[in-house]
Request: fold
Amino acid sequence: MEALFIGQAYIDVTLLADEMPKGDDKTVARDYAVSFGGNAVTAAFACAKQGVVPDLLASHADDWLGAMFADMARTYKIPLHPRKVKRSSLSFVMPHEGKRAIIRARDDKYLHPFPHLDLTGCRGLHLDGHQPDAALYYAKESRLRGILTSLDGGGLRPSTDELLSYIDVAIVAERLCEQMELTTEQMLDHLKTKGCKIGGVTEGERGMLWYDEDGVVSRLPSLSVPREKIIDTSGAGDVFHGTYMASYLHNPTARWAMHFDNARAASAYKIQHLGNEAGLPSLADIEAMKKLYPPQA
Reply:
């Protein structure tokens, strides 16, 4: 096991349309994509695309959407450790003018306890807060074994504050700051207090405010992708997380500024493609983004 990612699995249906129908209206989409979805799940596929294939502990149902998801995991050679639910989770994503509306149908009523996996050889754990019992167990185990732990803090969950005590790299969203009634700067201070070695708050097109190994706070601006090239921003954060994990696993002695430099280039690639799978960059794609688009001023 190179790494373990834990999250909620979705099948994403992304529809590109010029307008959102209401009432009895109908419209025809200009394009569509069907792909895997979910925060840590998409991050796992991004990591695999870049040459480090993680194990994935995710929700899974014995239905045709579940069969589709399992087939996607096999395609990327991702070992899937299913945690059974009755029905697969589904997302409808509608990108429009740099934003995206999402309708989700989720089944997170797990039918069985989470599996206890052998972490021998594991070098990284990435969580998104779903499956809070499994997330906390594996975060504690990883801390005991010296395995790097990473959290995608997209929103507040019952176990978030306890979980942060076992996280090395905590990259959270502005939404979490709002839910905890903290400013971005106060959130960074909170992450430091919890013992997170690296912490950051993502702010969309404004990039990320973060602190490094020395505790120094700085801004990582996003790359200046022209607005007309932006197709689908959904999943860009997940690709960001998967890429910095892949970068760390490829080069664990490098400073985190380099890992995040790779991650923002990966996000710049993702937003130019429709759907999660089409937006997974290779290592060559990441280097191309760095050369093509300078950081925003």
Remarks:
- Residues 4-21+29-104+123-292 form a domain with the UDP-N-acetylmuramoyl-L-alanine:D-glutamate ligase fold (CATH 3.40.1190.20).
- Residues 236-250 form the longest helix (15 residues).
- The first strand starts at residue 4 and ends at 7.
